Amino acid sequence: MNRTKNIGKRRFKLGSQLLVDNLLNKQLEKYNVTIDDLPKLKEDGVFGEKEWFEYYKFTTEREYQNWANYCVKVLTENTYPRLNKKEAIRQFQWLNMGFGLKQDYKLNNEDNVEKKSDIIKESEILGSAGGEISATTNESVGNSETSS
Predict the structure, then answer these.
(1) Is the peptide bond before 81 cis (omega within 30 degrees of 0)?
(2) d(CA 70, CA 90)
(3) CB distance 31 to 78 below 8 Å
(4) Which of 47, 79, 85, 142 is the most exposed place for a label (fewest CB within 10 A)?
(5) Among candidate residues 50, 18, 13, 58, the one with its CA nearest the CA of residue 35
(6) d(CA 90, CA 72)
(7) Can you state the angle between helices 85-99 and 61-77, rounded to 10 degrees?
(8) Which sign does the torsion angle of CA 13, 99, 65, 38 carry?
(9) What are the residue ranges spanned by the domains of the chain?
(10) Which of 18, 7, 14, 9 is nearest to 79 (CA)?
(11) Range 110-120 average pLDDT
């Protein structure tokens, strides 16, 4: 069941709660959960000590790419003020850093060494053929799996 609101031609004010909820609900679709369900699930102890975005995970690179592409498309086509692709990617990166699901899959780099992906590089997004966002590891950024 698709519980993400059909946005069609609807325009969202950049930064509005409705826009953010729509983007976050898209990544939770496969779990049949929405942002509105999360407080009750947390209260019921479903997540244990984890946050919801650590409990639910992207299990394939394709899932992550689909969500990233959806977010950039919505940010470029359905917001006001309207964003160009580069600005939309930056907004997506902030959203992903704060509330993106943990990426629980492995990618092979050029040396065939497996690494966990936890960030996308803007240069690869803007330069990718076919308009897809690709997930890669950025060596200059520390590991995002630190505990507080």
Answers:
(1) yes
(2) 14
(3) no
(4) 142
(5) 18
(6) 9
(7) 130
(8) negative
(9) 19-131
(10) 14
(11) 41
**Interval 75-86: pLDDT, tens:** 999 988 889 999
User: Phi first, then psi: what are they for 99, rounded to 5°?
Assistant: -140, 10
Q: What is the pLDDT of residues 27-58, one digit of tens each?
A: 999 999 999 999 999 999 999 999 999 999 99
Query: In the predicted model, is pLDDT for residue 131 greater than 60?
Result: no
Measured distance CA(12)–CA(43) in Å, rounded = 30
Residue that has been written with the tokens 């907004």 in this structure? 91
- Cα 51–chain centre separation: 15
DSSP assignment of 24-39 equals HHHHHGGGT--GGGHH
Other C-beta atoms lying within 10 Å of the C-beta of residue 7? 15
Among the residues of the chain, which ranges form H helices? 17-28, 38-43, 52-55, 61-77, 85-99, 122-127
Contact yes or no for 19/12 (Cβ under 8 A): yes
Q: Which amino acid is at 53?
A: F
Asked whether 10 and 19 are in contact (CB, 8 A), the reply is no
The pair of three-digit structure tokens given for residue 79, joined into one six-digit string: 């917001």
